[in-house]
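Work through this protein:
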Amino acid sequence: MTASPTLRLDVAPDDLFGLHNLPYGVYSLPGRAPRVGTRYGEHVVDLATLLGDEVFAGPSLNPFMAQGHDRWVQVRSAIAAALRGEVPREAVHSAAEVTLHLPFDVADYVDFYASEHHAANLGRLFRPDNPEPLMPNWKHLPVGYHGRAASVVVSGTDIVRPAGQRKGPSDPAPVFGPSVRLDIEAELGFVVGTGNALGEPVAAGQAERHLFGVVLFNDWSARDIQAWEYVPLGPNLGKSFASTVSPWVVPLLALTEARVRTPVQEPEVLPYLTLDVPWGLDIDLEVEWNGEVVSRPPYSAMYWSPAQMLAHLTVNGAPTRTGDLFASGTVSGPAKEQRGAFIELTWGGAEPVTVAGEQRTFLEDGDEVVLRATAPGPGGTRIGFGEARGRVVPARHGGEV
């Protein structure tokens, strides 16, 4: 007796990956090429097979994202309708048995600095004698820097400890070697589905038609390398060696119930950053260090919204492309246990935290950090983002090159 060619998937309505979520990712089976799928409960469902659409038969979300907002709405509805009925058996795979890949080709990458709590904490750490922790421009524009797209890696990729120049305050000259103040930054990343042409900025009110989805984002940071290099032009090698993203892209369309107003912005922002209804996202992050949760940053506390970041990124006429990625910067809340970077959590190393029974400040070889997050969904459900996981491995060399 042969097995039925179809089956009905039994997924609880309140599953983190239920019909209210339907994130997109790229998966592969042993000996087969990567393809686009969606996560549904503990299953990965092949979308080319489910929908009969070859745009999902390749190893990247970019061709689908480039089709635009109206198509994203149509496909999301079609996936949900198909999963409510009988599904082709050949389309269904156990999430535990597939390999997950970088879900989209990263075209460009920009990192912002959108948390007032994080920016103020670093201001107090680095400029303790200044009564104003924020720089004069901070509340007038979303501060950011251009990073390196080629070093964005998918969850589970080992992070090689970076080497570079560093110079302590009392050192007579810089030295070269592996970073000794390796840190994380718990962030969200926003994926551009359709870009804008050169010279044609994206208005803040139109940003959501360009934004496809959201990923977890860990911007690994070598604080000692960064401290020596960043004046006057900003981060470079201290940030460019690796950034980890989660393998599942949660559609912005799935986050309607997670929308909240941003904190009150004073002084009033310039017109190009104004939204009729300012919106942020109520997403709860979790930072796990060697198996122990050490922080729970709330994205709802972020000062600058995703729409404002995209509007500012393009206001000078800079183009964006399908697959562009911009990140929020470290997500931190007002409480110590809500700080999204270890430099904040340990106050520059002066206040160690206990991790698995040990006093710790910055990352050591062998340490593993995992970011997770959930957001409100319809009817009291929660939406899952999966995880962004990375383990630190030793530097490739330890001395002069």
The two ends are 66 Å apart (CA to CA). Residues 18 and 264 are 34 Å apart (CA to CA). DSSP finds nine helices and 28 strands in the chain. The mean pLDDT is 96.
